[in-house]
Amino acid sequence: MHLPYTTPLTSSFVKVFFPMQIEVMFEFAAAHQLPNHPGRCQRMHGHNYKLIVAVAGEVDAHTGFVADFSDIENICNEAVLKKVDHTCFNDYLENPTAERIVQWMWPLLKGRLPGLCELRLFETSACAVVYRGP
Ligand SMILES: [Zn+2]
């Protein structure tokens, strides 16, 4: 089954039908405090987050791309990075765990980023959450 790149896709559809996935990594710094955490994360603190945005789709016969990396960079910078870098996630979310943060980011990107299939957010170099939203 071949679909044009511009077809709006749900992430579950993308996962099933497209063997090619491309990814762009972003870095940003932000603060948060977790009100329901039993330990030190209840206090305000910051992270140097890494966000990996994945897009799946057909490899275009002419360009050889699933999508242009710079288009993905521009869309993500405009929709998410400008909003979150050097801010406090508690301004947006009551309990901004990494899980809640990617759930909040997903609709900011979906619709603007055709083929969006996965967000991977590293809170530290060793710990990440992966979200494949609706
Ligand atoms: Zn934290």
Most strands sheet: 5 strands, mixed
Query: Please, what is the average pLDDT?
Result: 91
Termini separation (Å)?
21 Å
- Give, in order, the helices and strands: HEEHEHEE
Shape: elongated
The number of helical segments is 3
Oligomeric form? single chain
Are any ligands bound, and if so which? Answer: zinc ion
Our estimate of the beta-strand percent is 25-35%
Fold blueprint:
Layout: H1 11-17, E1 21-32, E2 45-56, H2 69-84, E3 87-88, H3 98-109, E4 116-122, E5 128-131
Parallel strand pairs: 1-3
Antiparallel strand pairs: 1-2, 2-4, 4-5
The site of zinc ion (ZN) has 5 residues, from strand 2.
Describe this structure in words.
By secondary structure, this protein is of the alpha+beta class. The protein has a domain at 1-22 and 66-115. Helices cover 26% and strands 28% of the residues. It is built from three helices and five strands. β4 and β5 (128-131) form a beta hairpin. The radius of gyration is 16 Å and the shape is elongated. The two termini are 21 Å apart. The model is unreliable at 1-7 (pLDDT under 50). The structure holds zinc ion (ZN). Zinc ion is lined by residues 32, 41, 45, 47, 123.
Can you tag this structure with a few keywords?
134 residues, alpha+beta, 5-stranded mixed beta sheet, 3 helices, elongated, disordered N terminus, binds zinc ion
Summarize this entry quickly.
The protein has three helices and five strands. The protein has 134 residues and is an alpha+beta fold.
